[in-house]
Structure formats: C-alpha cells, structure tokens
Amino acid sequence: MVINAGDHLKIIPLPSNPFQVLHGVFNIEKPFRELRKQVELAAGKEVKKGG
Q1: Contact 10, 3 (CB under 8 A)
Q2: How many domains does the chain have?
Q3: Domain that holds residue 17
Q4: Model pTM greater than 0.70?
Q5: How far apart are CA 14 and CA 20, in angstroms?
C-alpha cells in the first residue's frame, strides 16, 4: 500500500492474503450485515458534520 504523506510517500507492505492472516483475530458476535450498517450510519453522520 502506498500513502501520500505530503512531502513523501509512505509504503506499507501487506500480506498477499490479509484475511487469512487475520483469521480468528476478531471474535465478534454480531453478523457482518449489522456491523456494515453501523459503519455506514457512522460514515453518514461524519459526512453530514463535514469531517
């Protein structure tokens, strides 16, 4: 991943399969659909307030 950090670029290496590396790291009881809805609502509020 390459990130524009103003006067330079930041390079962050990523594994070829990040989901496999993270498998089992998060133990979340909520279904993906519910989590996605929460994130979309939070993002909408952030956009409305201008941030």
Answers
A1: yes
A2: 1
A3: 2-48
A4: no
A5: 12
